[in-house]
Amino acid sequence: MTETAGGRDAEAVSKFVESFAAQLVEAGMQRMPARVFAALLSSDEGALTSVELGERLRISPAAVSGAVRYLTMTHMIAREREPGSRRERYRVHGDQWYEALTNREAVIKRWETALREGVASLGPDTPAGRRMAETLAFFEFVDEEIVKMMERWRGRRDQLFGEGRSLAEDR
Amino acid sequence: MTETAGGRDAEAVSKFVESFAAQLVEAGMQRMPARVFAALLSSDEGALTSVELGERLRISPAAVSGAVRYLTMTHMIAREREPGSRRERYRVHGDQWYEALTNREAVIKRWETALREGVASLGPDTPAGRRMAETLAFFEFVDEEIVKMMERWRGRRDQLFGEGRSLAEDR
DNA sequence: CCGTAACTTCACAATTTTCTGAAAGAAGCG
DNA sequence: CGCTTCTTTCAGAAAATTGTGAAGTTACGG
To answer: Up-side HSE of residue B11: CA atoms within 13 Å toward CB?
Structure first.
């Protein structure tokens, strides 16, 4: 019973890929990046080549290229050169991708900037200005907290899955 | 010097509204809900009527209606009946809206469901299945942590802004 | 109860987004 | 060095999204 072999219930896997991608889309990610990411996540290697992605998802090389560019920029995946070949492999960042998801540092920072401008525009003594200020304080708080939370997570992860080589089996 | 009066640097306020809305859009919110929300946030009352929203943002009643429906469903705002009038007011949920933003309970729950299905489809003993399982554990962890974080936030908020009536001046 | 003000729903037009095929651009291998 | 294989870019067709006007619905006030 070779369950990890090539055609291991491809049906069910594809179904999962699409349904997980749909969740990501609903959370704001573009469709193609979401599908590509889900495909990588569900691969045993945690990595696939462009061609493999194109085949599994039935999309053109161009679509793969675009999706991969986005995912690389947002640090959800890494690109690797397969030695001795001009093929490229794309790999889920093991235990870093959901940090990227949660963190969204850049996003939060921009919000904070916008809110600071808001306080300035509205005046810190107006009711609206005070509301902005409190909201701003909230985001600053969240910022700090998330850093600490991720530290705690790493602790628990090691405890649950063993420190040795959890998902970071590679790299 | 009536700074809170009607025409308090409407220019600057509008500029803030649009720029904050743009951030929300970038984070995945639809345009109209984002603009409506930003407008409410920057109003001194923390609440506006449909007509006021339409005027400030230069959009049709239909657009207001759609935006408001979305925002109500996601618990970002509340609707109030103005007594003795058939006008409706929409109010930012004071200190609850960013909880809704951060929480996204529903979203996380759906992700967890999808991931559980993933583990089942892929088999818990495959490498991919193990990766799903770890990801799932992460979300479950985040779930718990966010609850605690919000409790800590309320503590700090009371400390920073005074327990009496911070933003929850109404309701 | 009727008149009317406020809000909602619906179909459509306009815009924007998305994905593809085709062509151009790199980079290993012989 | 040129051939071949893989990836990226680009223009455009197809599809989805968005916001509007207009008709419809609700419910207050008289």
So the answer is: 1
Q: Name the token pair of A148.
A: 């600490």
| Residue B122 in tokens | 């892929």
CA→C1' distance for B63 and D7 (Å): 43
Which residues lie closer than 8 Å to A112 by C-beta, 6 or more apart?
A136, A139, A140, A143
Strand, helix or coil for residue B19: helix
Residue A5 has pLDDT above 60, yes or no: no
How far is residue B167 CA from its own chain's centroid? 15
d(CA A104, CA A111): 11
Whole-angstrom distance, CA of residue B168 vs CA of residue B145: 25
Note the strand D nucleotides within 7 A of protein beta carbons.
5-11, 17-22, 26-29
Place of tokens 């308090």: B8
- Interface residues for strand D (CB within 7 Å) are A 49-51, 61-62, 64-66, 68-69, 85-88; B 30-32, 58-63, 66, 81, 83-86
Q: Which CATH number fits domain B10-93: 1.10.10.10, 3.40.1350.10, 2.120.10.30, 3.30.565.10?
A: 1.10.10.10
Coil, strand or helix: which one is A79?
Answer: strand
Q: What pLDDT shows up at residue B104?
A: 67
pLDDT tens track for B106-154: 788 889 999 999 999 999 999 999 999 999 999 999 989 988 999 999 9
Is A102 in contact with A150 (CB distance < 8 Å)? yes
Write down the domain spans for chain B. Answer: 10-93, 99-161
Which residues of chain A neighbour B148 with C-beta distances below 8 Å? none
Q: For residues B56 and B18, what is the distance between their CA atoms, to the nearest angstrom?
A: 11
Identify which of B122, B42, B87 has the alpha carbon closest to the alpha carbon of residue A20.
B122
Q: How many Å apart are CA A14 and CA A57, to the nearest integer?
A: 8
Minimal CA–CA distance to A167: which of A56, A41, A81?
A41
Q: Which two structure tokens, joined as six digits, stand for B61?
A: 């009643």
- Asked if A158 contacts A168 with a C-beta cutoff of 8 angstroms, the reply is no
CA-to-C1' span, B129 to C4 (A): 63
